[in-house]
Write a structure and sequence with these properties.
By secondary structure, this protein is mostly beta strands. It has four helices and 22 strands. The strands form three sheets. The protein has a 16-stranded antiparallel beta barrel.
Length: 412
């Protein structure tokens, strides 16, 4: 009990401390560990290289809320691949993606949340692996098209309520088609991720996600005070015209996020940036009965302070009848720990600490600690009786090592 009170006090004090200063923030673990460089290098024309991309991780979650049970992710993924630039504007990559959890010997065909249910009893033994291929072509100096394995996960820059950062560790590489547009005033990432393909007679559902992530810069990003407007949409579709196994199984659900942010560069040797971002998110069930809600919403103000290697984070979340398609169950009204349980206006106060450092090109380390103080809330069980859950505190902590060396084989 005493420990819980101390943690709650820590969360509140950190939140108030960050709210009492100007705002700025840059991604630390996302940029230094999770993200991949999507830029083409025209100077590599004719080069054939061998690349190893790997993240080794240990993530432990001690959750006390009834929204989701706690769990641990100990393991690694690795991508050995050949990389070739036939032209300065074309990049080809081919290899394998392999996921291994320490102590596991059987893996679902797909690693996304509940995707295994779509794929039925399709499993792999020993290690989870998939072929990997990416073709990237610069249509103009500002627009790239990518086919095959796209630049997904953290590269989309989705808001926390829309995307669970743990998918950078556990999810299969996204695959389909992607358009990347970058200019002085706007960045646009549009993609389709084909998660489950079906042939006629298959016993699992077709499934794909369409996404749009954009950011409009209201002034030059190099200014001391920079203003921007993010706009994001995710639409997930399940079922297809030749899906004859499931009756009335067509489902389309949409998440959207719109917000405003300000980043302030600080002329200080220790503190680098401060950031404040206010995001509103929504849910719309366009078709199907997978969710008990037709629509819902949430509000997410977040403050970050970035130092050379350290980033402090604080946020508040509240929602009504909201479900995140790819986000943490904490950002939702439905329990994954107790199917059928629906929470009434759940929320939390959050504080986090990140340490990240790049030791050399292709070698970086990240350490993350998160604390959530869940609000006391009422919920309805499957029998629709109204019950009460008192305020609780949850923890998450992880260590992540990114290794991504490249070896030149030949220059044609």
């Amino acid at each position: 009990m005493i420990c819980g009170l101390k943690i709650t006090l820590f969360v509140k004090l950190l939140f108030l401390m960050l709210c009492s200063v100007p705002f700025i923030g840059i991604a630390q673990i996302n940029e230094r560990v999770y993200m991949s460089d999507s830029r083409l290098d025209s100077t590599k024309k004719g080069e054939l290289s061998f690349e190893i991309d790997n993240i080794s991780f240990f993530q432990n979650n001690e959750f006390s809320s009834g929204l989701v049970k706690g769990y641990t992710l100990p393991g690694m993924w690795v991508q050995p691949k050949a990389v070739f630039y036939p032209l300065g504007s074309i990049k080809l990559e081919a290899g394998l993606h392999m996921l291994r959890y320490w102590g596991a010997n059987k893996y679902p065909n797909f690693a996304y949340t509940d995707i295994a249910k779509w794929k039925g009893s399709q499993y792999q033994s020993g290690v989870h692996w998939l072929p990997y291929f990416r073709a990237q072509f610069a249509l103009t100096s500002k627009l790239d098209i990518i086919l095959g394995n796209i630049y997904g996960a953290a590269n989309h820059g989705l808001a926390d309520p829309l995307y669970n950062s743990e998918l950078n560790l556990s999810a299969d590489p996204e695959a389909g088609m992607q358009l990347l547009y970058k200019s002085k005033s706007v960045d646009v990432d549009a993609w389709i991720n084909w998660e489950s393909f079906i042939f006629e007679g298959d016993t699992h559902q077709e499934a794909f996600t369409v996404g749009l992530s954009s950011q409009v810069r209201l002034n030059d990003a190099s200014k001391k005070v920079h203003f921007y407007l993010p706009l994001q949409v995710l639409a997930q579709h399940r079922g297809g015209e030749i899906d004859t196994i499931f009756t009335n199984s067509i489902q389309t659900n949409i998440n959207a996020a719109v917000g405003a942010g300000v980043t302030v560069s600080v002329a200080d040797h220790s503190l680098r940036q401060l950031n404040f971002e206010l995001t509103g998110v929504g849910l719309y069930q366009q078709s199907g009965k997978w969710l008990p809600y037709t629509w819902g919403y949430g509000i997410y103000p977040k403050v970050t302070a970035s130092f050379k290697y350290v980033r402090l984070k604080a946020a508040y979340w509240t929602c009504h009848n909201f479900v995140s398609l790819l986000g943490s169950p904490f950002f939702g009204s439905l329990s994954t720990a107790y199917p059928g349980r629906q929470y009434q206006n759940p929320g939390f106060i959050y504080a986090g600490f990140e340490y990240s450092k790049t030791f050399a090109k292709g070698f970086s380390l990240g350490v993350d600690l998160d604390v959530y103080r869940h609000n006391a809330v009422f919920f309805a069980d499957p029998k629709k009786s109204l019950l009460y859950e008192k305020a609780t505190v949850s923890f998450g902590a992880g260590v992540y090592l990114r290794i991504n060396p490249t070896f030149l084989l030949k220059k044609f």
